[in-house]
Amino acid sequence: MFQTDILFGLPIYKTKIDPDTYDKEKLLSIMKKNYSLGPRNNFDEYNSNVHMSFADEKNKKFKSVNYTKLKKVYDNVFDNFIKNLKFNYDGAVNWTYDILNYTVSNKDDYMNYHNHLPKDDFACVHYLQLGKGHIGTKFKNTHTFGNYFKLIRSKLCNSMNNMNKINSYIYEDFTLDVEEDDMIIFPSVAEHGIKKVDKLSDKLRITIASNLRLV
Ligand SMILES: [Fe+2]
Question: HSE on the CB side for 197, CA within 13 Å?
């Protein structure tokens, strides 16, 4: 057997958020209602019709979302997450987080690559609702060879199992397998986005994004 070490890789943490521990259906109904009221996108970088609350929370056209119950769940999740990080000292670690945005996407919607620098250490995506054919967050391979390696070593690239995360370094991007109610936490420096939703699904794709940082 061979020992496997990943050098300069991005740790992506995944956990489950129990839907029975907060008012999931209420949150979904407000988000779906807001979606039905029309486009909501105040951030040019994401130039598709993806519906998002970011930088538009004060818009009276849409109902505001009360995250109080969800925050109680997140408090525990992030507390556990921080406790399991590897620090170079013992003792208390101070941290905080914000729920940043909810995103509703439908056929032909996408979100361009972006990161959550400079204010945060980790970014989080909670998959509140996924329909048939919906996939997780797409991560960009930002190694300098990320967009040309496959052109030079095509035999290797075409031979390796492209679903296995250990092979992710080979490809330009990688999309993690996730299910509804999963949450992923990843370094804020990671370039990520939503791949274009190709087909009409039975449900809207709805996610909540948060930012987490040491203080
Ligand atoms: Fe993001």
Answer: 27
Instruction: Determine the distance separating the centroid of ligand 1 and the alpha carbon of 193, expressed in angstroms.
Output: 7
CA 89 / ligand 1 centre spacing (Å): 30
Q: How remote is the CA of residue 146 from the centroid of ligand 1, in Å?
A: 20
How far CA 34 is from CA of 25, 43, 98, 192, in Å, comes to: 14, 17, 21, 25
Query: What CATH number does residue 63 fall under?
Result: 2.60.120.620
Structural domain span for residue 130: 3-214
pLDDT tens per residue across span 122-146: 999 999 999 999 999 999 999 999 9
Compute, in angstroms, the gap from residue 148 CA to the centroid of ligand 1. 25
The closest of 126, 142, 136 to 193, measured between CA atoms, is: 136
Query: Measured in angstroms, how far is the CA atom of residue 192 from the centroid of ligand 1?
Result: 6
Predicted confidence (pLDDT) per residue in 23-62, tens digit: 999 999 999 999 999 889 887 666 688 899 998 999 999 9
How many domains does the chain contain in total? 1
What percent of the chain clears pLDDT 70, i.e. is strictly above it? 98
Q: How far is the CA of 137 from the centre of ligand 1 (A)?
A: 9
